[in-house]
Amino acid sequence: MVLGIQIIGIVFAIGMIFLTYLCYRKNDFNIKDFSLWMIAWILFLIAAIFPNTLNKALESLRIYSVFDVFVVGGFIFITSIVFYLYRVTRRNQRKLEKVVKELALKKK
User: Fold this and answer.
1) What does the domain layout of the chain look like in residue ranges?
2) How buried is residue 41: exposed, middle or buried, by Cβ count under 10 Å (0-12/13-18/19+)?
3) Exposed/middle/buried for residue 48 (C-beta within 10 Å: 0-12, 13-18, 19+)
4) Taking the model in full, what pTM does it have?
5) pLDDT digits (tens, 9 = 90+) for 21-60
6) Cα gap 86→108, rounded to integer Å
7) Helix %, strand %, coil % for the chain, to 5?
8) Could you tell me which of 56, 58, 84 has the C-alpha nearest to residue 72?
9) In angstroms, rounded to a whole number, what is the distance separating the alpha carbons of residues 53 and 1?
């Protein structure tokens, strides 16, 4: 891995760990959200710091391109997050519809 890209990855991971911690302290994240994001950023940090270890582990699985792993893993991660956000949005939409119905019936 190129040293410049490695440094950018390390700085990015540390920044995201700090941002995740701040969101947890502001009660934007519960412990489950905080744990999920911290694990993701710590794994990213480890992959950025020790890229050769990751290469050796992938070769034992007969995967020869780290980039492929990051692309596929990224798609899986992003798809999971979008699905979760969709669920939360639908839940909030149902709650909002219920509140609006109750307010409309009270005014009538």
Assistant:
1) 1-62, 65-108
2) buried
3) buried
4) 0.67
5) 999 999 988 999 899 999 999 998 998 888 777 777 788 8
6) 33
7) 85, 0, 15
8) 58
9) 12
